[in-house]
Design a protein that fits this description.
The protein is about 55% helix and about 15% strand. It is globular. It has a five-stranded parallel beta sheet with strand order 2-3-1-4-5, sandwiched between helices. By secondary structure, the protein is an alpha/beta fold. Helix 1 crosses helix 9 and helix 2 packs across helix 3. The N and C termini lie close together (about 10 Å). Bound molecules: adenosine-5'-diphosphate.
């Protein structure tokens, strides 16, 4: 089984690249952002609680997203691999994920970390806000809050995986297909 974490700040292209990777490798895509937005659109209790954080650009509490990922792993016992997108976003989430995988006699294969300059990130998020319909992409203050959450809470997740030598930096600027080829090269080097 191949278990990939696609890592990077908001706007680094995780969602776009995840779709292409899933199409090529057939893994199960687990995006906590997508799972949360689905809870919100179904107006579940979890969704309503999560929305108050997401609207402010804040991270949803660890126990909520950890619970969602635990269920998703349980629901997909036959997957040939998982692509984690937007998770883990705190060191506590990373430790919980390692434990969940260990219980299944699995482990993270690699973390591919997309590197994009802050200037480019803000540009992309504002542009996405014009078409995505996502309210958190439509407000400068919320975009800035998400970047601060990334810097203060999420950036440390790559340090967590660095201690196990699992982090590979990938240049996240250029065309979508150039970035995709860079990611595939790193994955193909590690398959089998
Ligand atoms: P982006 O990467 O562009 O910020 P996402 O769809 O991954 O978009 O996340 C949208 C929002 O959902 C985040 O700003 C955060 O509020 C919430 N969220 C997503 N994943 C997590 C997570 N693993 N932990 C906490 N909050 C999360």
């Amino acid at each position: 089984m191949f278990n990939l974490i696609l890592f990077g700040p908001p706007g680094s292209g995780k969602g776009t690249q995840s779709e292409k990777l899933i199409a090529r490798y057939g893994w199960k895509h687990l995006s906590t952002g997508d799972l949360l937005r689905s809870e919100i659109s179904r107006q579940t209790k979890l969704g309503k609680a999560a929305q108050t954080y997401m609207d402010k650009g804040r991270l949803v509490p660890d126990e909520v997203v950890i619970g969602m990922i635990t269920s998703a792993l349980d629901e997909n016992p036959d997957a040939n691999g998982f692509l984690f997108d937007g998770f883990p976003r705190t060191p506590a989430q990373a430790e919980a994920l390692d434990e969940m995988l260990q219980k299944r006699k699995e482990a993270i294969s690699v973390m591919l970390a997309l590197e994009v300059s802050e200037e480019e990130l803000v540009k992309r998020l504002i542009k996405r806000g014009q078409t995505s319909g996502r309210s958190d992409d439509n407000n400068d203050q919320v975009i800035r809050a998400r970047i601060v959450e990334y810097q203060t809470k999420t950036a440390a997740v790559s340090d967590y995986y660095k201690q196990f030598d699992k982090v590979v930096m990938v240049k996240g600027e250029g065309s979508v297909s150039e970035i995709f080829e860079r990611l595939c090269m790193e994955i193909d080097n590690r398959l089998n």
